[in-house]
Design a protein that fits this description.
Layout lengths: L1 H18 L2 E5 L5 E7 L5 E6 L2 E8 L4 E9 L3 E2 L3 H8 L11 E12 L2 E11 L2 E16 L6 E12 L16 E12 L1
Antiparallel strand pairs: 1-4, 1-11, 2-3, 2-11, 3-6, 4-5, 5-7, 7-8, 8-9, 9-10, 10-11
């Protein structure tokens, strides 16, 4: 009888813990993947990936989560078509052969119930490297339009593109350091 009671309590606890985990899908109208790079130490070149998708599983009570975001390098946009064409070439993203960049994060850090960072891996040009995204403005709210919970924030990091084999122009002054910003609002499913 005691074993049955302990098993039942454990099952209820496991069920409640699982119930705290929620799935969210990135809202494409409120999600953006942006990058910034200095141009020979002067101006900042900015661009974005117009095609992106992602989902997040979040358990604020257990302080765990998983995030997966993919962006399509064929959709790169800087506002200048010749630059977009060059960035899609083998010199940079090699979009014809490796059209996707993927971030998978599975180590969430929290301050209370707010996400402060997500550590995981970034796969680009066929190589996977560790990356940590720092969160700012993380919040959840009840959408008056969707009638569902929406969570999101700005997640950013700075990477060295050479870690993925993207070394074009490094010998004559193009920067290795790229600032990556993923702005996300994800809708509870």
């Amino acid at each position: 009888m005691k074993t049955l009671l302990i098993s039942t309590v454990a099952l209820v606890a496991a069920t409640l813990a699982h119930a705290e985990s929620s799935s969210y899908a990135a809202d494409p109208s409120h999600t953006a993947v942006l990058f910034e790079a200095k141009h020979f130490g002067t101006s900042t070149v900015r661009g974005r990936f117009d095609k992106k998708e992602g989902n997040v599983t979040l358990d604020r009570a257990a302080k765990t989560g998983k995030a997966e975001f993919t962006f399509d390098t064929t959709s790169i946009s800087t506002g200048f078509v010749p630059l977009d064409t060059h960035l899609k070439s083998k010199d940079f993203f090699n979009a014809a052969e490796t059209p996707n960049v993927k971030f998978v994060g599975d180590k969430f850090s929290f301050d209370g119930d707010k996400v402060t960072s997500v550590a995981g891996t970034l796969t680009m040009l066929g190589k996977t490297q560790p990356v940590t995204l720092t969160a700012t403005n993380f919040n959840c709210y009840q959408s008056p339009i969707l009638k569902r919970e929406v969570c999101g924030g700005d997640f950013e990091t700075t990477i060295a593109r050479s870690q993925w084999g993207m070394s074009y122009g490094l010998t004559y002054g193009l920067p290795d350091s790229i600032h990556l910003l993923i702005q996300v609002e994800a809708i509870k499913q």
